[in-house]
Amino acid sequence: MTDWRGDVEAGVSAWLGDEGRPEPHHGGDRGPVRGDPVPDVSSRPGADRDLGPEADPESVARTILLDQLTGRARSRHELADKLRSRNVPDDIATRLLDRFTDVGLINDTAFARQWVESRQAGKGLAKRALADELRRKGVDPEVTREALDELEPGVEEAAARALVRKKLPSMRRLDHATATRRLAGMLARKGYPAGLVFAVVRDELGAPDDADPHE
């Protein structure tokens, strides 16, 4: 960095770069001398970021994408929405999204598989709920279907039973009808089909306490 101690003009130049360098003084104009007020550069554009040339829109967009992809994968649609919300021009956004896709940083097929595996195991979501989530994230329906088809047969029923069993201890004080309604509602909200919901709830909850076992 320029050694500008005692030289206000050089100090401003070092702060702002060549583009912000004040015009040289000519004629009778005197240069800055000790005791002159120091120009306030805090309000100038770029004063709140690192020194250096102002980033171009493509560099800004690239940084946004890398930041978004740090920690977890995202769908192309999600990333496009983020760039749009940051006012990145469409042509730059499309070019960078294509480039990130070409090098494998954006991969909706891998994203859908990862999402299905994570959300099914972590939240016990059924295929219908998973499909709705991927649709909202802009994943192609065919890509979604392929990801859901990779779930092992019986995984939905096993997950539904696990959810009901986890909830059963809090249902002990409820009457059978109320417990059935609440358990069925929980599974329905997670996307399970009605037939599976009532079969699982009936099996796991058992018959009503006042039911006649000989009926």
Automatic annotation (TrEMBL):
UniProt-annotated location(s): Cytoplasm
Region ranges (Disordered): 1-59
Classification via Pfam families: RecX_HTH1, RecX_HTH2, RecX_HTH3
Keywords: Cytoplasm
RecX first three-helical domain: residues covered: 61-99
Domain RecX second three-helical: 107-148
GO cellular component: cytoplasm
Keyword Cytoplasm among UniProt keywords: yes
Start and end residues of each RecX third three-helical domain: 156-201
Comp. bias intervals (Basic and acidic residues): 18-33
GO BP: any one term: regulation of DNA repair
Keyword tRNA processing: no
Principal subcellular localization: cytoplasm
Protein's job: Modulates RecA activity.
Family affiliation: Belongs to the RecX family.
Protein name per UniProt: Regulatory protein RecX
Phylogenetic classification of the source organism: Bacteria, Bacillati, Actinomycetota, Actinomycetes, Propionibacteriales
Name of the gene this protein is made from: recX
